[in-house]
Amino acid sequence: MPLITDPEDLRDLLRTACTIAIVGWSPNPTRPSHTVAEYLRAAGYRVFPVNPEVGTPSGDPAYCGLHDIPAPIDVVTVFRRPEFVPAVVEAALAVGAKALWLQDGVIHAKAAERAVAAGLRVVMDRCMRRDHRGLLAGSVAPLSATPAGS
Q1: Domain boundaries in the chain?
Q2: Cα distances (Å, whole numbers) of residue 99 to 9, 59, 73, 112, 122
Q3: Are 127 and 106 in contact (CB under 8 A)?
Q4: Is residue 54 scored above 50 in pLDDT?
Q5: 128 φ/ψ sector (left φ>0, alpha ψ -120 to 50, else beta)
Q6: How confident is the model over 18-34, as a mean pLDDT?
Q7: What number is the average pLDDT over the span 119-136?
Q8: Interval 89-112: pLDDT, tens
Q9: Percent of the chain with pLDDT over 70
Q10: What are phi and psi of 72, to 5 degrees?
Q11: Which CATH code of 3.40.50.150, 3.40.50.720, 3.40.1780.10, 3.30.499.10 fits the domain covering 7-136?
Q12: I need a labelling partner for 19 at 20 to 30 A (CA). Which of 49, 91, 98, 108 fits?
């Protein structure tokens, strides 16, 4: 399976995902990782911020790593520099994540190939919030999503 670029495949991923790990989450409310996390939470996804250097964002713990998240992960969304992506891919595979979403400017072809070869659905160099707005504007939360805060 190649990288996901087709709008219907993106829409399907966004509709079927319920839990999202935000790797590289920033507590700074002006940073994209923060605003994307808040948007996704408001859209009905269960969001798990991941950053070993921060405390508690928005009432939820910031997890040190994917292995600390107490729920199955549907999508690992990455806000780290490209050189950190291979380690994120290995961690995503280790916890059984279903998809990897590399945000705008996060490009690592070899890590993406590794993820695809291992069975992950992969999106690269795209903004999850922008795609959600463009593809599911006006939609209700994902049908199987657990309401935020549950």
Answers
A1: 7-136
A2: 12, 26, 8, 11, 6
A3: no
A4: yes
A5: alpha
A6: 92
A7: 96
A8: 999 999 999 999 999 999 999 999
A9: 86
A10: -60, 145
A11: 3.40.50.720
A12: 108
**Phi-psi bin for 58: left (phi > 0), alpha (psi -120 to 50), beta?**
left
Residue 87 tokens, joined: 């380690």
Find out whether 53 and 40 touch, Cβ atoms under 8 Å: no
CB–CB of 86/112 below 8 Å? no
pLDDT attached to residue 141: 44
